[in-house]
Amino acid sequence: MDEGQAKSAGLLEVSGLTLSRGGRVLLSNIGFTLASGEKLLVRGPNGAGKSSLLLALAGVLRPEAGRIAWHLGETPQIHYFGHATALKPHLTLAETLNFWRAVNGAGEMPAGPALEAVGLGGLEAIEAGHLSAGQGKRLALSRLLVSPRRVWLLDEPTASLDVEGHARVAGLIDAHTASGGIAIVATHDELALAGAPRTLALGAGR
Amino acid sequence: MSALLAIIGRDLKLALRGGADVLTLVLFFVMVAAVMPFAIGPDRPLLQKLGPGIVWIAAFLSMLLGLDRLFRDDEADGSLVLFRHAAIPLEAVVLGKMVAHWLLTALPLLVASPLLAVLLSMDPNGWGRAALSLLLGTPALTAFATIGAAVTVSLRRGGLLAPVLILPLAIPVLIFGVAIAAGGDGSGAATLVLAAISLVCVAFCPFAAALALRVSGE
Q: For A80, which of B74, B77, B85 is closest by C-beta distance?
């Protein structure tokens, strides 16, 4: 599929999406499409519905109205990266990644290089419980690398990360979208992403 | 298959590295039997008669102790959301966690059952029947526990509610389990019925529990 075809073939179509939580309308009549290689930054104040939108896109939350259509085929193609890092303090970093490689499907990148890519090289044998919050976030990010998926749904991926970590996250997102994946990133931070990412501004139930 | 084994292996590792939960269950199981002779009195024939029932009550209550940890940690740390997008269906994830739960909560009880037999003055045949009944019945109890844990995973007081939910389901297992352990005329039929209950429960439980987990996330 060349670039033109990829752009025309939307991987994600969202239309008329309305989402409520706790009786409060968070999103009302949201619509957008995303094609291969695109990245979408979701912005908005606390409580605007950024995380809820990602959870709805991940199939965890059921929208009140509207349609979310993924055109990804049969195999699971979504990586969800939420506030909870899904790390077990008593598993080593290598065990953590090898577990998710087994459960999510193993890609070409083994645990060692994935940890190197997020700045945790050489820490394979220590338990995740000994990591700082930022290192835990990096370990959770490395999970995206060991099992290739076309869609990354990232909720505050740079929270708790230092400046160097921000740059790494931006680099990982750029590399992912450059290889044809799509990334939807909810963030308050300024990410130095390549190109001109699209932005979805949420607020006041819109 | 490797994903299923990875889930079982991970849960076993976490349980063994994370603390003494397994030992707590076994200790509770043995302690129930240990205090019975003091409560009932040194009446050996009576103890032998009540032995099968005591074994099953102790096993059932011990397994309830470990019920809360089945999905609670995975829910709290976000793993359950990730399991929804695993390369294997959520039902297979539940099956893996159910097998690990049986290995961590029921197998130790089977291993400790000879000690109970001694404490309850059971003869070797009586112990054999009790162990067989536990082997056949505990998979069904684990299946019910899995459903109860899945239904209550997102509830704040789920740990209290789940045992109440599964108690009615567990009654037939207790009845047939005790019938096997006690021996007698009907024990052959009870063996077949209990085996059938366990097989059916283990086959259907992953689907029911996975559905409950999906609904609980919404």
A: B85
Query: Which value, to the nearest 10 degrees, does the dihedral of the CA atoms of residues B33, B38, B40, B41 take?
Result: 130
Mean pLDDT, residues A62-87 taken together:
86
- Tell me how close the Cα of A42 comes to any Cα of chain B, in angstroms: 20
Residue A204, pLDDT score: 58
pLDDT recorded at residue A3? 43
Q: Which three-class secondary structure string do you get for chain B?
A: CHHHHHHHHHHHHHHHHHCCHHHHHHHHHHHHHHHHHHHHCCCHHHHHHHHHHHHHHHHHHHHHHCHHHCCHHHHHCCHHHHHCCCCCCHHHHHHHHHHHHHHHHCHHHHHHHHHHHHHCCCCHHHHHHHHHHHHHHHHHHHHHHHHHHHHCCCCCCHHHHHHHHHHHHHHHHHHHHHHHHHCCCCHHHHHHHHHHHHHHHHHHHHHHHHHHHHHHCC
Q: Collect all residues with Cβ–Cβ distance below 8 Å to A98 and sequence separation of at least 6.
A: A111, B6
Residue B93: list chain A partners with CB under 8 A.
103
Give me chain A's average pLDDT, please: 86
Determine the pLDDT at residue B217.
Answer: 67
B85 and A79 within 8 Å at the Cβ level: the answer is: yes
Residue B78 gets the label, from left (phi > 0), alpha (psi -120 to 50) or beta, of left
- pTM of the prediction? 0.87
- Put simply, the answer to whether B85 touches A76 (Cβ < 8 Å) is yes
State yes or no: ipTM above 0.90: no
Parallel, antiparallel or unpaired: strands A10-21 and A65-70 = antiparallel
